[in-house]
Amino acid sequence: MHNRSPQSSTPTKAGRTSRIAGLGHKLKTVPHWPRRLKESHRLQASIRQAEIEGLQFAFYARLVAIIVVTAWLFAIVPWPRDLYYGAYALVFFIFGYIPYRLRHHPHGETIKLCFSVFDVALVTAAILIPPPMAVIADWPVQTRLRGQEFLYLLLLLAEAALTYSPRRVVSTGLSILVIWSIGVFAIYSLPDTLRFNDVITEESPTSVEVLSIIFQPTFVGLTAWYTQLVATALFTLLITLSVWRSRRTLVQQVAAEVVRADLARYVSPDVASALTERGETGFGDPATRSVAVMFADIVGFTKLTESLSPERTFTLLRSFQERSCAIVFKHGGTLDKYLGDGFMATFGSIDQFPDAAARALACAFDLQQEIERWGRKRSGRGAEPVRVSMGIHCGAVTVGNLGGRERLEFTVVGDVVNVASRLEEITREAGGSIVASDDCLRAAGHTEWKQRFQLSREVKLRGREQGILMHIAN
């Protein structure tokens, strides 16, 4: 084990790993990180995944809509005309299922855009093309424009809005405007269509004349079509703006998560989360609170690595750190710093835990078991097993950011840190693997935890005048 300085938060191990420079400096800049990452591959992949999930959700919503509309049509449309519209519903389902199945395809976006056009064409055909004469009364085709079925087309805009894609909303809206207009003018241009201008010769027709024309079965007026165009254009614009804003929020959330995930590789995940979530509210301002501090160190590291190559030593340290981090984070701890072949962890430094001491003790015993399992695996392949010593103390410390303008470090300062470090050092002399102070056991629930320690004694730690009661576990 290397020597440590008694300074609470500035251990001087030569092997200490470097951390991100400037971490925490001007935390208000955190919200601007997503813009710098906007074009990153990981960010784009995350956004693409969100779009795929949106497409999947839209397909399920589409399926529910098909079931509801089909049930409604079968309830109000007489037999066998309901089979005609049931066939349309089946094709509409297929048109939705194909892009859903191909959502991971490299050209999935293009496929979906194409099928959105097919959807509009299909719904328009279902509205404007009458069923075969065998299943419907001989009504003029012009009457197909008299109902409110056009509203079904607007549902396609709602479906497109669920995919986080303004492009799909615009594509769907334009398709409705164009295809519906083609259908309307196809009927408007039929020879037997009665048009207002064709029959009114006077400049100011009477109300009776106008009504008599409108109530003709073959009459087609363009006023309703104008209204439909304006309403569709406005709906498309408003939904596009809404989806665009939602997408911006999605991008910011995804980018913030990418930043947090990247940051968590250099600092403890809870510190990374606090930086991204509370950076604007004074994260890192000095505060005094009760914290449990744990130091852990590989026993006999120098002898253990004497015959190892630098590459194998590096692999050994990485394996130890990965196992240690997993256990610390499992118990809600904060990895304060790596110390070459050891580390310092705190419990309750970011968020106050009433059970901080119990978390630290549970972490120590879990880590001991994990290292023992690792040691058995190493022994099985002929390598020397690894042993770890740990010291734990609990009490009042000051938490916050330390450092200069260009580099900050969130850490804890106080005598508790020094005592925990000294308790880890004394494990060799005490003949145990875990040494915890009596203050720590009392804070954790003295009776419950004391039975896990085999020995207790009072010692005078190096650099301190006052003795301390410690508990030792093998």
Could you tell me the radius of gyration in angstroms? 36 Å
Report the structural category: alpha+beta
Task: Please outline the major beta sheet.
Answer: 8 strands, mixed
Low-confidence stretches: 1-39
Overview of this structure, please?
Helices cover about 55% and strands about 15% of the residues. It has about 475 residues and is of the alpha+beta class. The protein folds into two domains: about 40-260, no CATH class; about 280-474, 2-Layer Sandwich (Alpha-Beta Plaits), CATH 3.30.70. Strands 1, 2, 3, 4, 5, 6, 7 and 8 form an eight-stranded mixed beta sheet that branches. Strand 2 and strand 3 (about 340-345) form a beta hairpin. Helix 2 packs antiparallel against helix 9 and helix 4 (about 110-130) runs antiparallel to helix 5. Mean pLDDT is about 80; it is low at about 1-40.
List keywords for this structure.
474 residues, disordered N terminus, alpha+beta, 8-stranded mixed sheet, single chain, Alpha-Beta Plaits
Write a short abstract of this structure:
With 474 residues, the protein is α+β, with helices and mostly antiparallel strands. The protein has two domains: 40-260, no CATH class; 281-473, Nucleotide cyclase, GGDEF domain (Alpha-Beta Plaits).
Write the layout of secondary structure elements.
Elements: H1 33-36, H2 41-76, H3 81-101, H4 108-128, H5 151-161, H6 166-188, H7 196-199, H8 207-214, H9 223-263, H10 269-278, E1 287-298, H11 301-304, H12 310-330, E2 334-339, E3 342-347, H13 356-380, E4 388-403, E5 408-413, H14 415-425, H15 427-430, E6 434-437, H16 438-444, H17 446-450, E7 455-459, E8 468-473
Parallel strand pairs: 4-6
Antiparallel strand pairs: 1-3, 1-4, 2-3, 4-5, 6-8, 7-8
Helix pairs in contact: 2-3, 2-9, 3-4, 4-5, 4-6, 5-6, 5-9, 6-9, 9-10, 12-13, 13-16
